[in-house]
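Team,

Forwarding the record for the chain on the shared tracking sheet. I've put the sequence and predicted structure together so nobody has to dig through attachments.
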Amino acid sequence: MLDDSELSHDLRVTMKIGPLGGPSYVYRGAIIDGNEGGTVFRIVLLGAPFDGWKSDGDLSLPRGLVDAWRDHGEARHLLADAGNP
């Protein structure tokens, strides 16, 4: 079970240079890795249908996927718009 700080709606930088070459964040229990240019993101959230999802865009899409999963247990409509993992 995650505690309140791990499920926070605050996007926190955990590493300035993560596995994709840019910042890594924690958001509501998910890890979001970004590339150096901030244009490609990957989500790690075990148990979610988009765990390992990677796509281009900005931070609003991975945050929206995590929000949809955490709030409603649903993210398929967002994945359909963004491309499947």
